[in-house]
Structures are given as structure tokens and as C-alpha cells.
Amino acid sequence: MHPENGYTRLPPDMYAAVVPEAARHPVLLAWNDALAEELGIGGWADDDDARARIFSGSKLPPDSKPVALAYAGHQFGYFVPQLGDGRAALLGEVVDASGTLRDIQLKGSGRTPYSRGGDGRSWLGPVIREYLVSEAMHRLGVPTTRALAAVATGEHVYREERLPGAVFTRVAASHMRVGTFEFLAARKQTDALEVLADYAIDRHYPEARAADDPYAAFFDVVTSRQAELVARWMAVGFIHGVMNTDNTSIAGETIDYGPCAFMDEFRHDKVFSSIDHHGRYAYGNQPAIAQWNLARLAECLLQVSDSQAAFETALSAFPERYNERYRRLMRRKLGLSGNEPGDAGLIDAWLGHLEDNALDYTLSFRKLATRVSSNDDAHFGDVERQWRERAVGRGATPEEIAASMNAVNPLFIPRNHRIEQAIQDAVDGDMRVFRELQTVLAQPFDDHRELAHYADAPQPEERVFQTFCGT
Ligand code: AMP
Ligand code: MG
Fold first, then answer.
1. Do 146 and 217 share a structural domain?
2. Relative to the CA of 122, which ligand 1 atom is closest?
């Protein structure tokens, strides 16, 4: 572990030293060997028991000085000045194989000074969910925090009922959030804001250092990363569910897998989260919310920069940057080469057809690929004919078009009903569905003959309508 924790450069009221609570009987449930290799931490532990001890918080890795981080944030539009890692302990940073610093954090390892009324624990459900969904996102090409380990603690936590406890190990490019900046801005700690912004620039966007106003350049690149991130969410049909500013990463990764979900049938106004009563974080609102969150970051940085016009320019460029990236991804999903004036309309017509007919978002793209050399429009109606006219005759053969679509349109996504099944079985000590999901989600574009049923949309009685915060 890197001996110096970068966050300890920040003012002392932004973090607190913590001691993870030891688990009684830690048992390793999942271990990401490839990621461990990438992080160069193979030497920390050479068997599952030793890994279970470290990644439950029972034994610290070499040089680790764990901290919990403070932040603030806008939650559902309302500012909360004091939040923080209430059930997380940052073990520290490591330098990975490509020379990049990565944070390693335990979630569910006990109380911290930011726990308020909470127990600092996690039950097995959110651990299984984050493990599967974050690794699936990575394989789908979406920037995300990663899953290193899941450990059962052998203890119980009490929610509405008695549930098995677990600890999740998250790996992140960093844990700086829009809310981290808001914490200092709300207190008018401008010197500290500069320290934080400089740290974020050094760690993530060193090229901004050379600009006339590094803070404006920093904001510009953070804006681009968010545009790219949300475009990728939209293209895979992902709903984050709780896009509060404290869940918006400065590094542009998807962070905080609470009530998130992949859509089955396509709907712009789709909401799963049990606490999102007004649909603020509905699927179709995500780009606008990302821009709103970036406006909150701009307000913070304008305490340390005079370049108001540059901030306004970057912020107002967000919709166009987002649209450009989103359309590029959608053209690839639809097998459209080049960029033609009618493409945006065709994308809208396609989505309109899916929505009007309650069709499965993911599987419809795979189905469409099989229709490329048909000469009727039997399956998707009029839009299928429009699509075929646009897709073929631009140099690629029908087989090449279909292959290019299948290379970017997954067969397997972490569907809610399957995750629920994996969780229920894991509570009963059966990890088979979890492991099979890991297998298909690791290669989501391939056929997995034996496991093909994991591609299916839910039967009416299997459908999941609500997801819950990961506590
Ligand atoms: P999240 O929905 O994961 O972003 O959590 C919202 C806030 O509640 C964060 O500040 C968490 O640290 C805190 N929190 C969630 N679960 C717990 C828990 N079991 N114990 C203490 N704090 C928690
Ligand atoms: Mg959070």
C-alpha cells in the first residue's frame, strides 16, 4: 500500500482515522484475481482465509492507515452540508500496473465518525449486487469503480429482519466527488478548496495544470468525462437511481451502486428506486441531472477562479457533448457507419417503437441484427425498413453489419430478477447463480449455450419493480 494517503493532504476536518471492526468468521465469497494482479497486491495474502481476513477489515494490509472521508452533497436536490463514509473505510492507495493510483475501500466494515445513526455494516444483498453490476459495467465498457472482494462476516446485521453480514471491497480511481468540493465551498474554505482542486488535477487531469486557468480547464475535462459516462449509461440502458452530487465522481466513474438497475423493456421515464418518488433520477432525466450536478461543481470552483465565462461555456456545452457521444454509441449499436443527417431521427424512431411496444431494450438490438438481410419489415414494423435502408449499402456486407452490432450489443446484462435470485440463494449459502452470472457477465457479447437463459427478459411473475438503497 502506498505509504502516504493522498487525502491526508486535505484539511483535517475532511477525514478521520478509523479502525475497521474485525469480523468473527470471515469467509471469502468472491475474489477478483485479475484485478488483484492489476493492482499488484498478490503479495498481501496467498490463500482465501488470509484474503478474507484482510478484506473484511480483520487484518490490515501492509502500510495501511485507514480513513473515512467527509463530504457534503445535494441529495434529491437539497443540500446536506455534512455527509461522509458512514460504513466505509479507505484502506489506502496502491499504484497499479499502469502506474495509476487506485483507492481500495472496504464497505460494511463498521462504524465511523460519519455513521450518524447507522451501524456501519452491510448485509449480503448490496454486496452481491455491487459485485455483479460493477464488474458487468466494466465489461460493457462503462467507466466504473471495480469489485475486488466480497467477504461474509459470519455475523448478522439487523434491518427489517436478521440478515447475514458482508463486506465489499471497492476499487476506485479516487473517492473525490462533487460533494467533496461542496463540503469545503459551503464552509467558504477557499484555501482548502484550492488544495483539493490541485490534488484532483494532479491525480486525474495533470494536463489541466498547463492551462491559463487550471480550475476552468479542470471543470471542462470533468464535464467531458460526465458526458461520456452518462452517454454510456444511456446506451446500455442503465439507471443509476441516486445521482446525488455525493455520488458523482470527479474521475468520471460510475460510483455507488445502490438502487441502480438495467431496464428490461424500454421506457424513458423508467424508475426503479424505492425512494425516488418524483422520478427525479428516471432513465431519461440522467443527462439533465448530470448537467445540474456539474453546475453545483462550477459554483464551488468559482470560489477559487475568476473565469466565469469559461465555466458557463463548458456547462452549456454539456448537452451537445453528451448528444454527440450518445449518438455515436447508438449509431454503433444500430450498425450505422458514418454520420448522416437523419440518424438522430432514426434513433428516436427506433426508441419510440421499443417504448410503444414495451420491447426489451437489450435483446431488441440483438434481434434487429438478425433482420439486416430480410426483405420485409415483419418484426419491428416501419422503423425496421427505415433502418435497413440506412444501414445497408454503405460498403459493409449484411453479415459485417450484423457482426459489428453483435460486438457492441450485449446478450447478457445483470437483470434485476437474476440479481435478486443470486442474493436470495446466497443468503441460503448457495452461490451457484452468483457464479453463473459472473460467467456470462464476464463475456456479455458471447453466446453461453449452457447458460443462455440468463439472457432472457423476466417472465411476468419474475419482474422486479423496485430496487432499494444499499444499506
Ligand atoms: P448511499 O446511499 O450508499 O450513498 O448512503 C447514503 C449515506 O448513508 C452515506 O453517507 C453512507 O455513508 C450512509 N450510510 C448508508 N448505510 C449506512 C450504514 N449501514 N451505517 C452507517 N452509515 C450508512
Ligand atoms: Mg453514496
1. no
2. 19
